[in-house]
Design a protein that fits this description.
The chain has 383 residues and is α+β, with helices and mostly antiparallel strands. The chain contains 9 helices and 17 strands. The strands form 5 sheets. A 4-stranded antiparallel β-sheet has the order 1-2-3-4. Helix 1 runs parallel beside helix 4.
């Protein structure tokens, strides 16, 4: 790898630049080169220091951490001693490293394949032990599975198991349709899918009363929200009629206890109900169902699917003329009994805020956009 002057050096430089366009000489003697060498799409920093006497056998090769993995191999040292010039050395260096990197990649790929095969085999054994009828889905890699359990009430409940690449050393991540973050997996290296399933069924038993409670509400009343309740939903907005409703939020572990309440609708409709609730709270009896207690303390009969249609309680907003708006349904109504038109909170808020006749404190006072009677809405009172 001798340093050649004049035109020969220029030709030599050209060959070097063709192989490594970003590798440049740092001095006139061309004994020090620095830049980047690109191998299999990776740019790696390289520095070559050649003694002033041009003895390439004593040249130093310096690189970044990626390149240093390969530079000091015996094969590359032999190539360095046997190559006649820098361009030939760089060409062979790239070739050797490409082969070495490919070999490492193939080895890692093979080990990964063997690991996945071992894990798949382990998961298959777990499924055989658990029972294939409990498996509702498995992806091709056997890294994601869905297990289904049918409770005594006939409801199907699902748990999704995401296997870690280091399974079973690392516990899988599980997601369920239980309320909140109710499922906490207890895992050891000896655990299996059967252990996950048993723990999941144990949690299901805790929430049996909760699902019975909301099931009664879903069957015997018109639930406005959520329209399609999920097993994890702890709140129900129940139609009362006259563009009013009550939202109850249950404690899933104690579903018969007094829930959180929120009345929605015109003041002249919901204020009497709120007063009844406050007056009759002492009559709340946890030996009765939540729906029975609601009927008792409010002294109302909820509209029922057996005697009414849901459309009777799904009147559109009097401003935007739609029922659904960005996931919300009308939750405000005009306080005038003769009007009682429903509004989305955001629609009414923006209408009153932009009206010249409105005035604001913590509450915006204005006129109903439908009948022009006085109407008000509290700021920051949206759901």
């Amino acid at each position: 790898m001798n340093c050649l002057p004049g035109k020969m050096a220029t030709k030599q430089n050209q060959k070097v630049f063709e192989i490594c366009p970003s590798l440049i000489p740092l001095n006139k003697q061309q004994t020090c080169w620095e830049g980047f060498i690109t191998i299999k799409g990776l740019d790696m920093h390289l520095r070559i220091e050649i003694p002033e006497d041009g003895d390439h056998t004593r040249a130093k090769l310096l690189g970044d951490w990626q390149l240093n993995q390969y530079l000091h191999s015996q094969q590359i040292s032999k190539r360095l001693k046997n190559t006649p010039d820098l361009s030939t050395f760089l060409s062979e260096l790239k070739h050797i490293m490409e082969l070495t990197m490919q070999h490492r990649y193939d080895g890692q790929k093979e080990r990964t394949s063997m690991t996945m095969s071992t894990q798949c085999s382990q998961v298959m054994q777990d499924i055989n032990q658990l029972g294939w009828e409990k498996l509702s889905y498995v992806d091709p890699s056997f890294r994601r599975l869905e297990l289904t359990s049918r409770g005594d009430n006939g409801r199907d409940h699902c748990i999704t198991v995401h296997m870690d690449p280091q399974h079973p050393v690392v516990a899988p991540n599980c997601t369920t349709d239980l309320p909140g973050d109710a499922f906490e997996l207890h895992w050891t290296r000896k655990s299996s899918l059967s252990d996950i399933y048993k723990q999941f069924e144990g949690c299901l038993e805790k929430y049996k009363d909760f699902w019975d409670t909301v099931g009664e509400i879903d069957e015997q009343t018109w639930v406005l929200e959520p329209e399609k309740p999920r097993p994890s939903d702890t709140a129900r907005r129940i139609a009362l009629g006259n563009n009013s409703s009550i939202q109850v939020t249950l404690d899933p572990l104690y579903p018969k206890m007094l829930p959180k309440f929120r009345f929605l609708g015109a003041d002249h409709v919901i204020n009497p109900l709120r007063e009844k609730l406050n007056s009759n709270l002492n009559d709340w009896n946890t030996s009765r169902s939540l729906l029975s207690n609601l009927k008792s303390v409010l002294n109302v009969e909820f509209p029922s699917p057996s005697s009414s249609r849901k459309e009777d309680f799904s009147e559109e907003c009097a401003i935007c003329l739609s029922y659904h708006l960005e996931g919300a349904i009308p939750e405000r109504a005009c306080d005038s009994p003769q009007c009682n038109k429903p509004f989305h909170y955001n629609c009414l808020y923006e209408w009153l805020r932009s009206s010249s006749s409105s005035h604001q404190t913590n509450t915006i006072f204005g006129e109903c956009p439908y009948c022009s009677k006085p109407i008000k809405i509290k700021k920051n009172d949206s759901r």
